[in-house]
Every structure is written in structure tokens, then in C-alpha cells.
Amino acid sequence: MKIIFYKIFLNENPLECYIGSCKNFSKRKSQHKKNTTNKTKKSYWNNLYFFIRLKGGWENITMKIIYEINLNSKFERNEYEQSFIDIIKPTLNSNNVVPNYPEITEIKNIVKNIIV
Asked: What does pTM read for this prediction?
């Protein structure tokens, strides 16, 4: 299945960012926007959505695809996403996707080559 890895960041400071993954980029972007403004959602007070509101809303934020790949499992997807998180060190991700597994080193090397 095709997986898209993306970065959400503040236009004036791209180091303040969030890393995520999805299968459908436009649908996921729409979900993020709804979660930012829908006070009835539990996720409304999530770090990312609070930050977006604090910085003036989506007009000051960019959501950009950083990598696309076909993967066979949720575990592989999580390994890639965690590698992006470990290397980019986003300030707005609340949790790690997977703990530190030795196997993730190979994927981290792939991700480093993508980012550099």
C-alpha cells in the first residue's frame, strides 16, 4: 500500500513541526483542519492543533509531503515514521510511534538520505 509521510510546519519557522503519515493526503489534511477548529472533538486540545490556533490558524501553516513509498505492513509504516521523527526531531509530535528497535537503523539510513 502507498504511504505518504508529511510534515506540518509553521511558515515562519519550519523547525516548529509535526511529522505524520497517511494513505490519502488530502483527506488527512482535511481531518487536521477539522480537528483544529472543532471544539467537540477530543483532539481539539492536542499540542498540534493548539499550536496551529495559537499561531493564527492554517494561513500560517504548511502541510507538505516529504516522502511516498509502498509498504507492506503497519509495522513498516511505523518504523519509517519513527525514523523521520528521530532524525527531524519535530517539536509538535507528542509521542513516539515505536520504541527503539535495532532493525530501525537500516530505515533511519534510508530516511537520512531522503532528508539530506
From this structure: 0.87
In the chain, the domains with their CATH numbers are 2-115 (3.40.1440.10)
3-state helix, strand, coil in the chain (%, to 5): 45, 25, 30
Cβ-defined contacts of 28-37 (< 8 Å, 24+)? 28/4, 29/63, 32/8, 32/63, 33/58
* pLDDT tens per residue across span 62-89: 999 999 999 999 999 999 999 999 889 9
Residue 62's DSSP bridge partners are: 9
